[in-house]
Protein backbone atom coordinates (compact mmCIF):
# COMPACT_ATOMS: atom_id res chain seq x y z
CA UNK A 1 0.00 0.00 0.00
CA UNK A 2 1.36 3.41 -0.96
CA UNK A 3 0.01 6.08 1.38
CA UNK A 4 0.39 8.69 -1.37
CA UNK A 5 -2.40 6.99 -3.36
CA UNK A 6 -4.86 7.89 -0.59
CA UNK A 7 -6.42 11.35 -0.79
CA UNK A 8 -9.44 13.35 0.39
CA UNK A 9 -11.52 13.43 3.53
CA UNK A 10 -14.69 11.32 3.32
CA UNK A 11 -17.76 11.65 5.51
CA UNK A 12 -20.43 8.98 5.89
CA UNK A 13 -23.57 11.15 5.64
CA UNK A 14 -26.00 9.24 7.81
CA UNK A 15 -29.69 9.45 6.93
CA UNK A 16 -32.68 7.91 8.63
CA UNK A 17 -35.94 7.52 6.73
CA UNK A 18 -34.51 9.86 4.12
CA UNK A 19 -33.59 12.60 6.60
CA UNK A 20 -29.90 13.50 6.74
CA UNK A 21 -28.90 13.49 10.43
CA UNK A 22 -27.41 16.62 12.09
CA UNK A 23 -24.20 14.69 12.87
CA UNK A 24 -23.50 14.43 9.12
CA UNK A 25 -23.36 18.23 8.85
CA UNK A 26 -21.21 18.47 11.99
CA UNK A 27 -18.74 15.99 10.48
CA UNK A 28 -18.67 17.97 7.23
CA UNK A 29 -17.69 21.07 9.21
CA UNK A 30 -14.71 19.24 10.74
CA UNK A 31 -13.87 17.50 7.44
CA UNK A 32 -13.68 20.95 5.82
CA UNK A 33 -10.99 22.05 8.36
CA UNK A 34 -9.02 18.83 7.87
CA UNK A 35 -9.24 18.89 4.06
CA UNK A 36 -8.17 22.55 3.95
CA UNK A 37 -5.17 21.76 6.15
CA UNK A 38 -4.22 18.89 3.81
CA UNK A 39 -5.07 20.66 0.55
CA UNK A 40 -7.58 17.92 -0.24
CA UNK A 41 -11.30 17.65 -1.01
CA UNK A 42 -14.28 16.89 1.22
CA UNK A 43 -16.38 14.03 -0.14
CA UNK A 44 -19.70 12.97 1.40
CA UNK A 45 -21.07 9.44 0.93
CA UNK A 46 -24.87 9.49 0.84
CA UNK A 47 -26.47 6.05 0.88
CA UNK A 48 -30.16 5.25 0.85
CA UNK A 49 -33.20 4.88 -1.36
CA UNK A 50 -34.68 7.93 -3.06
CA UNK A 51 -32.23 10.36 -1.44
CA UNK A 52 -30.35 11.73 -4.46
CA UNK A 53 -32.06 15.13 -4.38
CA UNK A 54 -30.55 15.83 -0.96
CA UNK A 55 -26.96 15.90 -2.18
CA UNK A 56 -27.03 19.69 -2.62
CA UNK A 57 -27.68 20.16 1.12
CA UNK A 58 -24.37 18.39 1.83
CA UNK A 59 -22.55 20.57 -0.70
CA UNK A 60 -23.94 23.73 0.92
CA UNK A 61 -22.56 22.53 4.27
CA UNK A 62 -19.01 21.87 3.09
CA UNK A 63 -18.84 18.90 0.68
CA UNK A 64 -16.97 19.38 -2.61
CA UNK A 65 -18.35 16.13 -3.96
CA UNK A 66 -21.21 13.86 -2.97
CA UNK A 67 -21.09 10.18 -3.88
CA UNK A 68 -24.68 8.97 -4.01
CA UNK A 69 -25.64 5.32 -3.77
CA UNK A 70 -29.36 5.09 -4.39
CA UNK A 71 -30.51 1.49 -4.14
CA UNK A 72 -33.53 -0.36 -2.72
CA UNK A 73 -31.12 -2.56 -0.73
CA UNK A 74 -30.15 0.54 1.26
CA UNK A 75 -33.63 1.72 2.24
CA UNK A 76 -33.12 0.74 5.90
CA UNK A 77 -29.76 0.46 7.61
CA UNK A 78 -28.54 -3.14 7.60
CA UNK A 79 -24.88 -3.86 8.40
CA UNK A 80 -23.94 -6.08 5.48
CA UNK A 81 -25.71 -4.09 2.77
CA UNK A 82 -24.14 -0.82 3.92
CA UNK A 83 -20.72 -2.43 4.50
CA UNK A 84 -20.62 -3.76 0.96
CA UNK A 85 -21.48 -0.37 -0.54
CA UNK A 86 -19.17 1.73 1.69
CA UNK A 87 -16.37 -0.85 1.43
CA UNK A 88 -16.51 -0.73 -2.36
CA UNK A 89 -16.53 3.08 -2.47
CA UNK A 90 -13.47 3.27 -0.21
CA UNK A 91 -11.60 0.55 -2.12
CA UNK A 92 -12.20 2.34 -5.40
CA UNK A 93 -11.76 5.97 -4.30
CA UNK A 94 -8.98 5.56 -1.69
CA UNK A 95 -9.70 8.35 0.82
CA UNK A 96 -7.00 9.36 3.33
CA UNK A 97 -9.55 9.91 6.12
CA UNK A 98 -13.11 8.65 6.70
CA UNK A 99 -15.40 10.07 9.43
CA UNK A 100 -18.59 8.47 10.76
CA UNK A 101 -21.10 9.61 13.39
CA UNK A 102 -20.75 7.67 16.65
CA UNK A 103 -24.42 6.65 16.49
CA UNK A 104 -25.89 3.15 16.61
CA UNK A 105 -25.46 3.15 12.82
CA UNK A 106 -21.92 4.55 12.60
CA UNK A 107 -20.66 2.41 15.48
CA UNK A 108 -22.04 -0.69 13.74
CA UNK A 109 -20.75 0.15 10.26
CA UNK A 110 -17.32 1.69 10.92
CA UNK A 111 -15.71 -1.28 12.75
CA UNK A 112 -17.12 -3.66 10.13
CA UNK A 113 -15.38 -1.56 7.43
CA UNK A 114 -12.16 -1.26 9.48
CA UNK A 115 -11.97 -5.04 9.80
CA UNK A 116 -12.86 -5.57 6.11
CA UNK A 117 -10.18 -3.14 4.91
CA UNK A 118 -7.69 -4.02 7.70
CA UNK A 119 -7.25 -0.47 8.88
CA UNK A 120 -7.45 1.50 12.12
CA UNK A 121 -10.51 3.08 13.69
CA UNK A 122 -10.70 5.45 16.66
CA UNK A 123 -14.04 5.71 18.45
CA UNK A 124 -15.84 8.73 19.90
CA UNK A 125 -13.20 11.34 19.04
CA UNK A 126 -13.57 14.75 20.65
CA UNK A 127 -10.75 16.42 18.73
CA UNK A 128 -9.41 15.79 15.22
CA UNK A 129 -6.44 17.72 13.90
CA UNK A 130 -3.65 17.73 11.34
CA UNK A 131 -0.19 18.33 12.84
CA UNK A 132 3.27 17.87 11.35
CA UNK A 133 4.96 14.59 12.31
CA UNK A 134 8.69 14.29 13.09
CA UNK A 135 9.53 14.45 9.37
CA UNK A 136 7.30 17.47 8.86
CA UNK A 137 4.65 15.44 7.02
CA UNK A 138 1.02 16.14 7.94
CA UNK A 139 -0.26 13.64 10.47
CA UNK A 140 -3.89 12.98 11.43
CA UNK A 141 -4.29 13.01 15.23
CA UNK A 142 -7.44 11.74 16.88
CA UNK A 143 -8.10 12.51 20.55
CA UNK A 144 -10.67 10.62 22.60
CA UNK A 145 -11.59 10.01 26.21
CA UNK A 146 -10.04 6.80 27.57
CA UNK A 147 -10.39 4.79 30.74
CA UNK A 148 -14.05 5.64 31.21
CA UNK A 149 -13.43 9.34 30.54
CA UNK A 150 -10.74 9.61 33.20
CA UNK A 151 -7.91 10.20 30.70
CA UNK A 152 -7.54 11.58 27.19
CA UNK A 153 -5.60 9.65 24.54
CA UNK A 154 -4.34 10.92 21.19
CA UNK A 155 -4.29 8.12 18.61
CA UNK A 156 -2.53 7.96 15.24
CA UNK A 157 -2.83 5.50 12.39
CA UNK A 158 0.60 5.86 10.76
CA UNK A 159 0.85 2.99 8.26
CA UNK A 160 -2.68 2.04 7.24
CA UNK A 161 -5.20 3.82 5.08
CA UNK A 162 -7.78 5.15 5.28
CA UNK A 163 -7.50 6.61 8.78
CA UNK A 164 -10.96 6.37 10.30
CA UNK A 165 -12.79 7.80 13.28
CA UNK A 166 -16.23 8.12 14.76
CA UNK A 167 -17.45 11.33 16.44
CA UNK A 168 -20.46 11.61 18.73
CA UNK A 169 -23.34 13.89 17.75
CA UNK A 170 -23.05 17.39 19.19
CA UNK A 171 -19.24 17.42 19.44
CA UNK A 172 -18.18 19.15 16.21
CA UNK A 173 -19.52 22.45 14.86
CA UNK A 174 -21.18 22.57 11.48
CA UNK A 175 -20.19 25.39 9.15
CA UNK A 176 -22.51 28.19 8.14
CA UNK A 177 -24.70 26.99 5.28
CA UNK A 178 -23.62 28.57 1.97
CA UNK A 179 -26.61 28.70 -0.32
CA UNK A 180 -25.80 27.92 -3.93
CA UNK A 181 -22.34 26.50 -3.11
CA UNK A 182 -21.06 24.45 -6.05
CA UNK A 183 -19.98 20.82 -5.97
CA UNK A 184 -20.23 17.65 -7.98
CA UNK A 185 -22.61 14.74 -7.50
CA UNK A 186 -21.34 11.30 -8.52
CA UNK A 187 -23.54 8.24 -8.68
CA UNK A 188 -21.96 4.99 -7.55
CA UNK A 189 -23.27 1.51 -8.37
CA UNK A 190 -22.01 -1.12 -5.94
CA UNK A 191 -22.01 -4.81 -6.88
CA UNK A 192 -24.13 -6.39 -4.16
CA UNK A 193 -23.50 -9.98 -3.10
CA UNK A 194 -26.99 -10.83 -1.87
CA UNK A 195 -25.87 -14.31 -0.71
CA UNK A 196 -24.32 -12.55 2.31
CA UNK A 197 -27.58 -10.79 3.31
CA UNK A 198 -28.43 -13.07 6.23
CA UNK A 199 -30.20 -10.49 8.40
CA UNK A 200 -33.62 -9.25 7.39
CA UNK A 201 -35.72 -6.49 8.87
CA UNK A 202 -38.97 -7.81 10.29
CA UNK A 203 -40.32 -4.49 11.52
CA UNK A 204 -39.38 -1.20 13.10
CA UNK A 205 -40.94 -0.12 16.38
CA UNK A 206 -40.66 3.59 16.94
CA UNK A 207 -40.23 4.82 20.48
CA UNK A 208 -42.72 7.42 21.67
CA UNK A 209 -40.85 10.61 21.03
CA UNK A 210 -42.56 12.77 23.59
CA UNK A 211 -39.27 14.13 24.79
CA UNK A 212 -37.42 16.46 22.44
CA UNK A 213 -33.75 15.70 21.81
CA UNK A 214 -31.75 17.21 24.70
CA UNK A 215 -28.62 17.48 22.54
CA UNK A 216 -30.43 20.19 20.52
CA UNK A 217 -31.57 22.19 23.58
CA UNK A 218 -30.18 25.67 24.32
CA UNK A 219 -31.08 25.51 28.02
CA UNK A 220 -30.98 22.37 30.15
CA UNK A 221 -32.05 22.01 33.78
CA UNK A 222 -30.51 18.71 34.79
CA UNK A 223 -31.07 16.66 37.92
CA UNK A 224 -29.18 14.00 39.82
CA UNK A 225 -29.54 11.90 42.93
CA UNK A 226 -30.21 15.01 45.06
CA UNK A 227 -33.52 15.55 43.24
CA UNK A 228 -34.75 12.32 44.91
CA UNK A 229 -37.86 11.49 42.86
CA UNK A 230 -40.43 12.41 40.21
CA UNK A 231 -41.83 15.20 42.43
CA UNK A 232 -38.33 16.65 42.63
CA UNK A 233 -38.09 16.63 38.84
CA UNK A 234 -41.43 18.48 38.66
CA UNK A 235 -39.66 21.40 40.36
CA UNK A 236 -36.90 21.25 37.73
CA UNK A 237 -39.50 21.06 34.95
CA UNK A 238 -41.21 24.22 36.26
CA UNK A 239 -37.87 26.05 36.15
CA UNK A 240 -37.10 24.69 32.68
CA UNK A 241 -40.54 25.87 31.51
CA UNK A 242 -40.01 29.50 32.59
CA UNK A 243 -36.55 29.48 30.99
CA UNK A 244 -37.81 27.87 27.78
CA UNK A 245 -35.52 24.91 28.34
CA UNK A 246 -35.71 21.18 28.84
CA UNK A 247 -35.06 18.79 31.68
CA UNK A 248 -32.14 16.36 31.57
CA UNK A 249 -30.86 13.78 34.02
CA UNK A 250 -27.76 12.12 35.39
CA UNK A 251 -27.27 8.38 35.02
CA UNK A 252 -28.28 7.62 38.61
CA UNK A 253 -31.82 8.88 38.09
CA UNK A 254 -32.15 6.91 34.84
CA UNK A 255 -30.84 3.69 36.35
CA UNK A 256 -33.38 3.91 39.18
CA UNK A 257 -36.18 4.43 36.69
CA UNK A 258 -37.17 8.00 37.62
CA UNK A 259 -36.17 9.47 34.22
CA UNK A 260 -36.07 7.95 30.70
CA UNK A 261 -32.77 7.07 29.05
CA UNK A 262 -33.35 9.63 26.26
CA UNK A 263 -32.65 12.51 28.64
CA UNK A 264 -29.47 11.05 30.18
CA UNK A 265 -26.34 13.20 29.92
CA UNK A 266 -22.88 11.64 30.03
CA UNK A 267 -20.56 8.92 28.80
CA UNK A 268 -23.35 6.36 28.34
CA UNK A 269 -25.96 9.03 27.59
CA UNK A 270 -25.82 12.09 25.37
CA UNK A 271 -23.21 14.78 24.88
CA UNK A 272 -24.76 18.22 25.31
CA UNK A 273 -23.45 21.72 24.71
CA UNK A 274 -26.24 24.13 25.65
CA UNK A 275 -25.89 27.85 26.37
CA UNK A 276 -26.94 27.18 29.96
CA UNK A 277 -26.58 23.93 31.91
CA UNK A 278 -28.05 23.96 35.41
CA UNK A 279 -26.85 20.94 37.37
CA UNK A 280 -29.16 20.38 40.34
CA UNK A 281 -28.22 17.77 42.92
CA UNK A 282 -25.66 16.23 40.57
CA UNK A 283 -22.39 15.30 42.24
CA UNK A 284 -20.53 15.26 38.93
CA UNK A 285 -19.02 11.83 38.28
CA UNK A 286 -16.39 12.00 35.56
CA UNK A 287 -18.77 10.13 33.23
CA UNK A 288 -21.34 12.89 33.69
CA UNK A 289 -18.83 15.72 33.26
CA UNK A 290 -17.68 14.13 29.97
CA UNK A 291 -21.16 14.74 28.56
CA UNK A 292 -21.70 18.38 29.59
CA UNK A 293 -18.49 20.22 30.41
CA UNK A 294 -18.42 21.96 27.02
CA UNK A 295 -21.62 23.82 27.89
CA UNK A 296 -21.23 27.61 27.56
CA UNK A 297 -22.34 28.45 31.09
CA UNK A 298 -22.72 25.99 33.95
CA UNK A 299 -24.55 26.64 37.21
CA UNK A 300 -24.37 23.95 39.88
CA UNK A 301 -26.53 23.62 42.98
CA UNK A 302 -25.44 20.95 45.45
CA UNK A 303 -25.53 20.43 49.20
CA UNK A 304 -22.01 18.98 49.25
CA UNK A 305 -19.44 21.72 48.86
CA UNK A 306 -16.83 19.14 47.81
CA UNK A 307 -18.96 17.79 44.95
CA UNK A 308 -16.80 17.50 41.78
CA UNK A 309 -19.49 19.29 39.75
CA UNK A 310 -18.19 22.55 41.27
CA UNK A 311 -14.86 22.00 39.49
CA UNK A 312 -16.53 22.66 36.12
CA UNK A 313 -19.23 25.12 37.24
CA UNK A 314 -18.99 28.81 36.36
CA UNK A 315 -21.29 29.55 39.27
CA UNK A 316 -21.59 27.14 42.17
CA UNK A 317 -24.19 27.32 44.92
CA UNK A 318 -23.83 25.20 48.03
CA UNK A 319 -27.42 24.72 49.14
CA UNK A 320 -30.69 22.85 48.99
CA UNK A 321 -32.10 22.69 45.48
CA UNK A 322 -35.55 21.85 46.87
CA UNK A 323 -35.67 25.33 48.39
CA UNK A 324 -33.68 27.27 45.78
CA UNK A 325 -35.24 25.93 42.56
CA UNK A 326 -38.90 26.83 43.35
CA UNK A 327 -37.87 30.29 44.63
CA UNK A 328 -35.77 30.83 41.53
CA UNK A 329 -38.66 29.81 39.29
CA UNK A 330 -40.99 32.35 40.94
CA UNK A 331 -38.35 35.06 40.80
CA UNK A 332 -37.63 34.51 37.07
CA UNK A 333 -41.37 34.56 36.35
CA UNK A 334 -41.53 38.02 37.96
CA UNK A 335 -38.44 39.19 36.06
CA UNK A 336 -39.96 38.10 32.76
CA UNK A 337 -43.27 39.86 33.53
CA UNK A 338 -41.49 43.19 33.99
CA UNK B 1 -26.43 -25.37 20.34
CA UNK B 2 -22.86 -24.22 20.99
CA UNK B 3 -22.48 -20.64 22.16
CA UNK B 4 -19.24 -18.69 22.59
CA UNK B 5 -19.37 -15.65 24.87
CA UNK B 6 -16.53 -13.09 24.73
CA UNK B 7 -15.86 -11.51 28.11
CA UNK B 8 -13.27 -9.01 29.32
CA UNK B 9 -11.90 -8.18 32.73
CA UNK B 10 -11.90 -4.42 33.23
CA UNK B 11 -11.05 -1.97 35.99
CA UNK B 12 -14.26 -0.59 37.47
CA UNK B 13 -13.89 2.84 35.87
CA UNK B 14 -16.89 4.18 37.76
CA UNK B 15 -14.90 4.19 41.00
CA UNK B 16 -11.68 5.63 39.58
CA UNK B 17 -10.75 8.93 41.19
CA UNK B 18 -8.55 11.73 39.97
CA UNK B 19 -5.84 13.12 42.21
CA UNK B 20 -7.10 16.68 42.66
CA UNK B 21 -3.58 18.12 42.98
CA UNK B 22 -1.64 16.24 40.31
CA UNK B 23 -4.59 15.58 38.00
CA UNK B 24 -3.51 11.96 37.58
CA UNK B 25 -5.46 8.72 37.89
CA UNK B 26 -5.55 6.98 41.23
CA UNK B 27 -5.47 3.32 40.17
CA UNK B 28 -4.87 1.84 43.59
CA UNK B 29 -7.78 -0.02 45.10
CA UNK B 30 -9.73 -0.02 41.84
CA UNK B 31 -11.45 -3.42 41.65
CA UNK B 32 -11.37 -5.58 38.51
CA UNK B 33 -14.77 -6.75 37.33
CA UNK B 34 -16.39 -8.62 34.48
CA UNK B 35 -17.31 -5.95 31.94
CA UNK B 36 -21.04 -5.20 32.44
CA UNK B 37 -22.17 -5.55 28.80
CA UNK B 38 -20.23 -8.85 28.56
CA UNK B 39 -21.96 -10.09 31.71
CA UNK B 40 -25.26 -9.23 30.02
CA UNK B 41 -24.08 -11.30 27.04
CA UNK B 42 -23.30 -14.24 29.30
CA UNK B 43 -26.75 -13.90 30.86
CA UNK B 44 -28.37 -14.09 27.40
CA UNK B 45 -26.34 -17.22 26.63
CA UNK B 46 -27.38 -18.82 29.91
CA UNK B 47 -31.05 -17.99 29.28
CA UNK B 48 -30.81 -19.71 25.88
CA UNK B 49 -29.14 -22.65 27.63
CA UNK B 50 -31.98 -22.80 30.21
CA UNK B 51 -34.61 -22.78 27.44
CA UNK B 52 -33.11 -24.97 24.74
CA UNK B 53 -30.04 -26.59 26.23
CA UNK B 54 -26.71 -25.24 25.02
CA UNK B 55 -23.02 -25.57 25.59
CA UNK B 56 -21.67 -22.20 26.73
CA UNK B 57 -17.95 -21.48 26.34
CA UNK B 58 -16.61 -18.20 27.71
CA UNK B 59 -13.44 -16.85 26.12
CA UNK B 60 -11.25 -13.94 27.09
CA UNK B 61 -7.91 -12.44 26.16
CA UNK B 62 -5.74 -10.93 28.85
CA UNK B 63 -3.26 -11.51 31.65
CA UNK B 64 -3.47 -14.56 33.98
CA UNK B 65 -5.41 -12.51 36.59
CA UNK B 66 -8.51 -12.87 34.38
CA UNK B 67 -8.79 -16.39 35.84
CA UNK B 68 -10.99 -15.00 38.65
CA UNK B 69 -13.49 -13.52 36.20
CA UNK B 70 -13.61 -16.72 34.14
CA UNK B 71 -14.35 -18.70 37.31
CA UNK B 72 -17.17 -16.29 38.08
CA UNK B 73 -18.57 -17.08 34.61
CA UNK B 74 -18.31 -20.81 35.31
CA UNK B 75 -20.06 -20.30 38.65
CA UNK B 76 -22.88 -18.46 36.86
CA UNK B 77 -23.37 -21.51 34.65
CA UNK B 78 -20.87 -21.47 31.75
CA UNK B 79 -19.58 -24.92 30.79
CA UNK B 80 -16.07 -24.15 29.64
CA UNK B 81 -13.62 -21.24 30.01
CA UNK B 82 -10.63 -20.43 27.82
CA UNK B 83 -8.17 -17.61 28.46
CA UNK B 84 -5.93 -16.48 25.62
CA UNK B 85 -2.80 -15.33 27.35
CA UNK B 86 0.51 -14.79 25.59
CA UNK B 87 3.03 -11.96 25.35
CA UNK B 88 2.48 -12.07 21.58
CA UNK B 89 -0.95 -10.48 22.14
CA UNK B 90 0.47 -7.50 24.06
CA UNK B 91 -0.21 -4.01 22.77
CA UNK B 92 -3.12 -5.13 20.59
CA UNK B 93 -5.63 -2.52 19.43
CA UNK B 94 -9.20 -3.52 18.57
CA UNK B 95 -8.27 -4.93 15.14
CA UNK B 96 -5.47 -7.14 16.50
CA UNK B 97 -7.60 -8.17 19.50
CA UNK B 98 -10.54 -9.17 17.33
CA UNK B 99 -8.14 -11.00 14.99
CA UNK B 100 -6.72 -13.07 17.87
CA UNK B 101 -10.23 -13.89 19.13
CA UNK B 102 -11.22 -14.93 15.58
CA UNK B 103 -8.29 -17.37 15.56
CA UNK B 104 -9.65 -18.95 18.74
CA UNK B 105 -13.26 -19.05 17.51
CA UNK B 106 -12.10 -20.78 14.31
CA UNK B 107 -10.80 -23.78 16.24
CA UNK B 108 -13.97 -24.07 18.37
CA UNK B 109 -17.43 -25.32 17.38
CA UNK B 110 -20.08 -22.64 17.55
CA UNK B 111 -23.53 -21.73 16.31
CA UNK B 112 -23.69 -18.32 17.95
CA UNK B 113 -21.14 -15.82 19.29
CA UNK B 114 -22.19 -13.26 21.87
CA UNK B 115 -20.12 -10.26 22.97
CA UNK B 116 -20.86 -7.20 25.06
CA UNK B 117 -21.60 -3.99 23.17
CA UNK B 118 -18.54 -2.25 24.60
CA UNK B 119 -16.09 -2.38 27.50
CA UNK B 120 -16.16 0.34 30.14
CA UNK B 121 -12.39 0.93 29.99
CA UNK B 122 -12.19 1.51 26.23
CA UNK B 123 -15.82 2.26 25.24
CA UNK B 124 -15.00 1.56 21.57
CA UNK B 125 -17.74 -0.99 20.72
CA UNK B 126 -15.40 -2.18 17.95
CA UNK B 127 -14.22 -5.67 18.90
CA UNK B 128 -17.62 -7.34 18.33
CA UNK B 129 -18.22 -6.12 14.75
CA UNK B 130 -14.52 -6.53 13.86
CA UNK B 131 -14.61 -10.14 15.10
CA UNK B 132 -17.78 -10.81 13.09
CA UNK B 133 -16.08 -9.52 9.94
CA UNK B 134 -12.90 -11.60 10.51
CA UNK B 135 -15.14 -14.69 10.72
CA UNK B 136 -17.43 -13.65 7.86
CA UNK B 137 -20.46 -13.73 10.18
CA UNK B 138 -23.49 -11.46 10.08
CA UNK B 139 -23.65 -9.14 13.11
CA UNK B 140 -26.39 -7.52 15.13
CA UNK B 141 -25.27 -4.85 17.59
CA UNK B 142 -27.10 -3.14 20.50
CA UNK B 143 -29.13 -6.27 21.21
CA UNK B 144 -31.92 -5.82 23.75
CA UNK B 145 -33.67 -9.17 23.26
CA UNK B 146 -33.18 -12.41 21.34
CA UNK B 147 -35.26 -15.55 20.93
CA UNK B 148 -35.12 -18.71 18.85
CA UNK B 149 -37.97 -19.06 16.34
CA UNK B 150 -39.63 -22.35 15.32
CA UNK B 151 -37.66 -22.37 12.05
CA UNK B 152 -34.42 -22.27 14.06
CA UNK B 153 -33.63 -18.67 13.11
CA UNK B 154 -32.94 -16.04 15.75
CA UNK B 155 -35.24 -13.06 16.16
CA UNK B 156 -33.42 -10.13 17.68
CA UNK B 157 -34.44 -6.71 18.97
CA UNK B 158 -31.80 -4.11 18.15
CA UNK B 159 -32.08 -0.88 20.09
CA UNK B 160 -31.34 2.42 18.36
CA UNK B 161 -31.91 6.13 18.94
CA UNK B 162 -35.41 6.05 17.44
CA UNK B 163 -36.72 2.80 18.89
CA UNK B 164 -36.24 -0.85 18.02
CA UNK B 165 -35.48 -2.76 14.84
CA UNK B 166 -36.79 -6.33 14.95
CA UNK B 167 -34.41 -8.46 12.87
CA UNK B 168 -34.35 -12.09 11.86
CA UNK B 169 -31.05 -13.83 11.17
CA UNK B 170 -30.46 -17.11 9.44
CA UNK B 171 -27.54 -19.33 10.43
CA UNK B 172 -24.50 -18.48 12.50
CA UNK B 173 -24.13 -14.91 13.70
CA UNK B 174 -22.55 -12.59 16.25
CA UNK B 175 -24.58 -10.45 18.65
CA UNK B 176 -23.34 -7.56 20.78
CA UNK B 177 -25.45 -7.11 23.86
CA UNK B 178 -26.58 -4.26 26.15
CA UNK B 179 -26.11 -4.85 29.89
CA UNK B 180 -29.31 -2.93 30.63
CA UNK B 181 -31.40 -5.57 28.81
CA UNK B 182 -30.09 -8.65 30.63
CA UNK B 183 -29.95 -8.45 34.42
CA UNK B 184 -27.27 -11.05 35.22
CA UNK B 185 -27.98 -13.93 37.60
CA UNK B 186 -25.96 -14.49 40.75
CA UNK B 187 -23.46 -17.29 41.04
CA UNK B 188 -25.10 -20.32 42.65
CA UNK B 189 -23.48 -21.93 45.70
CA UNK B 190 -23.13 -25.24 43.88
CA UNK B 191 -21.86 -23.30 40.86
CA UNK B 192 -19.16 -21.69 42.98
CA UNK B 193 -18.09 -25.06 44.37
CA UNK B 194 -17.98 -26.57 40.88
CA UNK B 195 -16.20 -23.58 39.37
CA UNK B 196 -13.19 -24.25 41.56
CA UNK B 197 -13.03 -27.86 40.41
CA UNK B 198 -13.27 -26.92 36.75
CA UNK B 199 -10.24 -25.96 34.76
CA UNK B 200 -9.76 -22.53 33.22
CA UNK B 201 -7.84 -23.44 30.07
CA UNK B 202 -4.98 -21.06 29.32
CA UNK B 203 -4.07 -21.02 25.64
CA UNK B 204 -1.06 -19.46 23.95
CA UNK B 205 -0.94 -18.08 20.41
CA UNK B 206 0.34 -21.33 18.87
CA UNK B 207 -2.91 -23.14 19.72
CA UNK B 208 -5.11 -20.85 17.59
CA UNK B 209 -5.55 -20.34 13.85
CA UNK B 210 -3.71 -17.07 13.19
CA UNK B 211 -0.84 -15.50 11.29
CA UNK B 212 1.35 -14.46 14.24
CA UNK B 213 2.61 -11.38 12.40
CA UNK B 214 -0.88 -9.87 12.71
CA UNK B 215 -1.04 -10.18 16.50
CA UNK B 216 -0.30 -7.63 19.20
CA UNK B 217 1.42 -4.33 18.54
CA UNK B 218 2.65 -5.40 15.08
CA UNK B 219 -0.90 -6.18 13.97
CA UNK B 220 -2.36 -2.92 15.31
CA UNK B 221 -2.94 -0.11 12.81
CA UNK B 222 -3.57 2.43 15.57
CA UNK B 223 -0.91 3.61 18.02
CA UNK B 224 -1.25 5.74 21.12
CA UNK B 225 0.63 8.96 20.33
CA UNK B 226 0.18 10.30 23.86
CA UNK B 227 -2.20 10.15 26.78
CA UNK B 228 -2.78 12.89 29.29
CA UNK B 229 -5.10 13.89 32.11
CA UNK B 230 -8.08 15.84 31.04
CA UNK B 231 -7.55 19.58 31.17
CA UNK B 232 -9.87 20.83 33.86
CA UNK B 233 -11.29 24.23 33.16
CA UNK B 234 -10.71 26.81 35.85
CA UNK B 235 -13.54 26.48 38.34
CA UNK B 236 -15.76 29.49 38.83
CA UNK B 237 -17.00 30.91 42.11
CA UNK B 238 -18.63 28.70 44.69
CA UNK B 239 -20.92 30.39 47.21
CA UNK B 240 -22.28 29.08 50.48
CA UNK B 241 -25.26 31.37 50.93
CA UNK B 242 -28.91 31.43 51.97
CA UNK B 243 -31.50 30.38 49.37
CA UNK B 244 -32.54 34.03 48.95
CA UNK B 245 -28.97 35.11 48.23
CA UNK B 246 -28.51 32.13 45.91
CA UNK B 247 -31.52 33.21 43.86
CA UNK B 248 -30.08 36.74 43.56
CA UNK B 249 -26.69 35.42 42.41
CA UNK B 250 -28.25 33.17 39.79
CA UNK B 251 -30.67 35.79 38.48
CA UNK B 252 -27.83 38.31 38.15
CA UNK B 253 -25.72 35.86 36.16
CA UNK B 254 -28.65 34.92 33.92
CA UNK B 255 -29.11 38.60 33.14
CA UNK B 256 -25.40 39.11 32.42
CA UNK B 257 -25.56 36.16 30.02
CA UNK B 258 -28.75 37.56 28.40
CA UNK B 259 -30.62 34.37 29.20
CA UNK B 260 -33.41 36.36 30.87
Secondary-structure blueprint:
The complex is a heterodimer of chains A (338) and B (260).
Chain A lengths: L8 E4 L2 E2 L2 E2 L1 H17 L3 E7 L6 H6 L4 E6 L8 H15 L3 E5 L4 H12 L3 E2 L4 E6 L5 E9 L4 E6 L6 E5 L16 E4 L11 E8 L12 E5 L6 H14 L2 E4 L1 H5 L20 E5 L5 H7 L4 E6 L12 E4 L2 H17 L1
Parallel strand pairs in A: 1-4, 1-6, 4-5, 5-12, 6-11, 7-11, 14-15, 14-16, 16-17, 17-18
Antiparallel strand pairs in A: 2-3, 8-9, 9-10
Helix pairs in contact in A: 3-4, 5-8
Chain B lengths: L1 E5 L2 E3 L5 E2 L6 E2 L5 E3 L1 H17 L2 E7 L5 H10 L3 E5 L9 H13 L5 E5 L10 H9 L3 E10 L5 E7 L2 E7 L3 E5 L11 H7 L4 E4 L19 E7 L7 E4 L2 H14 L4
Parallel strand pairs in B: 1-6, 1-8, 6-7, 7-13, 8-12, 9-12
Antiparallel strand pairs in B: 2-5, 3-4, 9-10, 10-11
Radius of gyration of chain A over all CA atoms, rounded: 22 Å
By CATH, the architecture of chain B is named 3-Layer(aba) Sandwich
SSE arrangement of chain A, N to C? EEEHEHEHEHEEEEEEEEHEHEHEEH
Instruction: Please state roughly what percent of the residues of chain A sit in beta strands, choosing from under 5%, 5-15%, 15-25%, 25-35%, 35-45% or over 45%.
Output: 25-35%
Q: Assess the beta-strand content of chain B as a share of residues.
A: 25-35%
Helix percentage of chain B: 25-40%
Radius of gyration of chain B: 22 Å
* Number of domain modules of chain B: 1
Tell me how many strands of chain B there are. Answer: 15
Overall mean pLDDT of chain B stands at 93
Number of domains of chain A: 2
CATH superfamily of chain B: HUPs
Q: What is the multimeric organization of the chains shown?
A: heterodimer
Parts with pLDDT < 50 across at least 5 consecutive residues of chain A: none
Count of DSSP-assigned helices of chain B: 6
Instruction: Report the CATH topology name of chain B.
Output: Rossmann fold
Predict the CATH topology of the largest domain in chain A: Rossmann fold
For the record, give the distance between the C-alpha atoms at the N and C termini of chain B, rounded to a whole number: 63 Å
Amino acid sequence: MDKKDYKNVFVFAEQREGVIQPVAFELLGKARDLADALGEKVVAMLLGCGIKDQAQALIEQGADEVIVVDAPELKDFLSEQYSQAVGQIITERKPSIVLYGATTIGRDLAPRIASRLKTGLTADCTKLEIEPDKDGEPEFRMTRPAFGGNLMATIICPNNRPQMSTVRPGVMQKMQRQEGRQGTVTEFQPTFDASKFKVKLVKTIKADKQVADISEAKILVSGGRGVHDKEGFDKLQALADVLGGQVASSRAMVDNGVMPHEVQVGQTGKTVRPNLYMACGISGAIQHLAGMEESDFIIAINKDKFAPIFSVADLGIVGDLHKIVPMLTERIKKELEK
Amino acid sequence: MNIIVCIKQVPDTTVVKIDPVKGTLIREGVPSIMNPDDKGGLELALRLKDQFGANVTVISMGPPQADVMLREALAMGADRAILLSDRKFAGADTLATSYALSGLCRVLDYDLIIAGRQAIDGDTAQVGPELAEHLGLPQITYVADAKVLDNGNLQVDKENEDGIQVLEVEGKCLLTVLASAFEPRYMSVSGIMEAYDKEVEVWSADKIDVDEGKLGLAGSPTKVFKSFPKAMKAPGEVHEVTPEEAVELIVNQLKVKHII
